[in-house]
Design brief:
The chain is of the alpha+beta class. The chain contains 3 helices and 4 strands.
Length: 110
């Protein structure tokens, strides 16, 4: 999942978060993943960031109509944000994702 999203997907940015997504004919269901580097903080901090972002996506999950693979790519400066600020940045990115046309990308013929 991660490799496909990073290679073929598109991204939305709101530093220190990037939201990478892929809507393609090979995607059969909506999935959520995280890339949180060790430089972001200790395990407690990284898991806390994952929990906040997972909850943000869970609240809006029902609005995703086309199967989409979503990966939150978290940069190290995210550890200095409060949970409220992190939640707000995550909500902004998810809102921008949902505002995009939810059409499936068809693979180009070779």
């Amino acid at each position: 999942m991660f490799k496909a999203v990073l290679e073929k997907g598109k991204s939305l940015k709101s530093p220190p978060l990037n939201l990478r997504y892929l809507r393609a004919e090979t995607v059969d269901q909506t999935r959520l993943g995280f890339i949180v580097r060790k430089k972001t903080g200790n395990a407690v901090m990284r898991n806390s960031i994952r929990r906040v972002l997972r909850e943000v996506f869970r609240k809006r999950f029902h609005e995703v109509t086309a199967p989409t693979w979503v990966v939150f790519d978290v940069m190290p400066p995210a550890s200095s944000l409060t949970r409220r600020a992190l939640r707000q940045k995550g909500e902004d990115l998810v809102t921008r994702l949902l505002a995009l046309p939810q059409e499936i990308q068809v693979a180009a013929a070779p």
